[in-house]
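Please fill in the sequence for the structure shown.

STRUCTURE ENCODING:
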C-alpha cells in the first residue's frame, strides 16, 4: 500500500485520483519545457486513428487557441504528436486542455494544465547531486481572485424525488472555471 494514495481508513486520497488519471491506457501529456504534446500508451498494440485536440482558454473560459493533430503511430509506448507551442507567452493565466479521441469521436484520454505567465527557472549554479534549487517560481496568482460561483444540483434539497434526476449531477451556473468544488450530502428525516 502506498500511503499517499489512501488514508488511514483506506479511503482514496487526492493522489489516488491523480494516479488513476495518469495511468489511463492512452494519455496525452504536455511538456512544459519544450511545449510539445506526447501521447503515452501502456498498451502493447497499435493505437492508430487517434485525434489529439489541444485547446487553450483564458480564466474566463474564452478560447484563445485550438489545434487538432493525428496521433498514434504504432506500437511505440510514447510518441510525440505535436508542437503545441502557441501561445508560449501570455499576459495572464491560461489553461491547456488536451483531449484524445478515437476514430469514432469517443474520448480515450484527457489532461489539463495550468500555464503561467512567468516560467519557473532552476538555479543550476547551486545544483548538487541531491537537489536543484528554484531561482524563480512560476506565477499562478491569476487564479486567486476567481469569483465564487453557484453550483446547481441535479436533485434540489427538499424537492420531490424525480426518477430522472441524479443527485450527484452538478452544474456550475457561471462561465468561469471552478477549482476544488466540494459537495456535501445530508440525509433528511425519514428518507
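FILLED IN BY: designer on duty
SEQUENCE:
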Amino acid at each position: 500500500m502506498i500511503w499517499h494514495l489512501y488514508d488511514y481508513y483506506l479511503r482514496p486520497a487526492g493522489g489516488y485520483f491523480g494516479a488513476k488519471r495518469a495511468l489511463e491506457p492512452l494519455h496525452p501529456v504536455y511538456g512544459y519545457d519544450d511545449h510539445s504534446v506526447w501521447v503515452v500508451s501502456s498498451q502493447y498494440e497499435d493505437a492508430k486513428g487517434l485525434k489529439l485536440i489541444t485547446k487553450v482558454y483564458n480564466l474566463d473560459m474564452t478560447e484563445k487557441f485550438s489545434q487538432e493533430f493525428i496521433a498514434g503511430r504504432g506500437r511505440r509506448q510514447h510518441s510525440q504528436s505535436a508542437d503545441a507551442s502557441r501561445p508560449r507567452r501570455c499576459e495572464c493565466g491560461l489553461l491547456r486542455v488536451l483531449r484524445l479521441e478515437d476514430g469514432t469521436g469517443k474520448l480515450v484520454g484527457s489532461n489539463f494544465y495550468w500555464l503561467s505567465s512567468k516560467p519557473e527557472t532552476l538555479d543550476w549554479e547551486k545544483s548538487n547531486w541531491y537537489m536543484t534549487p528554484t531561482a524563480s517560481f512560476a506565477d499562478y496568482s491569476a487564479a486567486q481572485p476567481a469569483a465564487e460561483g453557484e453550483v446547481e444540483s441535479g436533485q434540489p434539497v427538499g424537492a420531490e424525488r424525480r426518477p430522472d434526476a441524479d443527485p450527484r449531477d452538478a452544474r456550475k451556473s457561471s462561465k468561469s472555471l471552478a477549482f476544488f468544488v466540494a459537495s456535501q450530502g445530508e440525509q433528511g428525516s425519514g428518507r
